[in-house]
Design brief:
This protein is mainly beta. It contains two helices and 26 strands. The chain is globular. It binds fe (ii) ion. It holds the Pfam family HgmA_C.
Length: about 400
């Protein structure tokens, strides 16, 4: 996705003999999207990446059932009340989902086993804690506020340093920066709210020795555990445009207007059937008579899933929303600030307040989101009526 990168040792030409110190050949592996017609990377393994010795079906450990949002209503989920069993992969609690994307929450302090999601890209947002992401491409040290984008099929694992909380966005396709941020050749344009320098990717090979190494593989059919003859983290070098990377929400450069700007200015990534937006601390809208919080709106084609990750939410005062909350404002419902919030922010500006500290990660989906058991188990049942108080 992002731009050309080379890590470790690669031969001068692709698909030529590249030999180990003992004279044997390194084994090529091309990881490519859209059937050789889109971005790819070429990896060089010490051992055959095809050598598996066992395959076994695995029961899905967590509840994957989804229910329609009926009766239709805005929802408030309190992730602060969730504790998951398992690791950052097997311990994911399904909050919401549809045919395009699944949104889950996980908290864990234990390393995950090796994992490959072959259904689509993942974007994992670290709400709290530090975690080392390890993969065939190398490692990325990640922490609070990082989005880690993991391309489809990347074998990886999560190694927390203490307790870590994440929101996992699992796509049924590829997650990329919005096209309008990029030149026709893929470079970030000057108006984009972030650029190549803000992306962190593996810098060196991660060479791990091991035999009979299990990898949990997720496909449309379910979960399988494949046992590899040799450890898949045996790549001495790779190059290309396809690799995992991290982007920290603090590196997002908010775009501010004189009057209130709608969420597309906060867009960070896009995937098939959804977008991801980052709401970051920024100056308030500066027209002398501006109302610097959202107007009531009805996104007739979207469900809006908002994870409040930091700061103060003056527009939501009286709603029960706080850090750790998730609101779901579905199509079919008009939403906006709670009663009194507009007057309160106008008063605050009159007193000299010029900035907002709000921080949130939003996923807008273009098809309705169904509700998972994780969300229903931490729902605040009074939320829907808070505009009518
Ligand atoms: Fe909204």
């Amino acid at each position: 996705m992002p731009y050309y990168r080379v890590v470790g040792e690669v031969p001068r030409k692709r698909h030529v003999q590249f030999r180990r110190p003992d004279g044997g050949l390194y084994a090529e592996e091309l990881m490519g999207e859209e059937g050789f017609s889109s971005d790819s990377s070429l990896l060089y393994h010490r051992h055959l990446p095809t050598a598996i010795v066992k395959a076994e079906a695995v029961e899905t450990g967590t509840e994957t059932r989804l229910e329609p949002n009926l009766p239709l209503s805005p929802r408030h989920f309190r992730t602060q009340e969730l504790s998951s069993a398992g690791d950052l992969v097997t311990g994911r609690l399904l909050l919401a989902g549809n045919g395009d994307v699944r949104l889950s929450y996980a908290t864990s302090d234990r390393p995950s086993e090796l994992y490959r999601n072959s259904m689509g890209d993942e974007c994992v947002y670290v709400q709290r804690g530090r975690v080392r992401f390890e993969s065939t491409y190398g490692a990325i040290e990640a922490g609070e506020g990082d989005y880690i984008v993991v391309p489809t099929g990347t074998i990886h694992r999560w190694v927390p340093e203490g307790p870590v909380n994440v929101l996992a966005i699992e796509a049924a396709g590829h997650i990329r920066p919005p096209k309008r941020y990029l030149s026709q050749y893929g470079q970030f344009l000057e108006h984009a709210p972030y650029c190549e320098r803000d992306l962190r990717a593996p810098a060196e090979p991660l060479l791990v020795e091991g035999e009979e190494v299990p990898v949990l593989v997720r496909t449309r059919g379910g979960l399988t555990r494949l046992v590899y003859r040799h450890h898949p983290f045996d790549v001495v070098g790779w190059d290309g445009y396809l690799y995992p990377f991290a982007f920290n929400i603090d590196d997002f450069e908010p775009i501010v207007k004189k009057t209130h700007a709608p969420p597309p200015v906060h867009q960070t990534f896009e995937g098939p059937g959804f977008v991801v937006c980052s709401f970051c601390p920024r100056p308030l809208d500066y027209h002398p008579e501006a109302i610097p919080i959202p107007y009531n709106h009805h996104n007739v084609d979207s469900d809006e899933f908002m994870f409040y990750v930091g700061g103060d939410y003056s527009a939501r005062a009286g709603s029960g929303i706080e850090v750790g909350s998730i609101s779901l404002h579905p199509a079919g419902f008009t939403h906006g600030p709670q009663p009194g919030a507009v007057e309160a922010v106008i008063d605050a500006v009159a007193r000299g307040v010029t900035t907002t500290s709000e921080m949130a990660v939003m996923v807008d989906t273009f098809r309705p989101l169904d509700l998972g058991q994780g969300a229903l188990s931490c729902e605040d049942p009074g939320y829907a009526w808070t505009w009518a108080r």
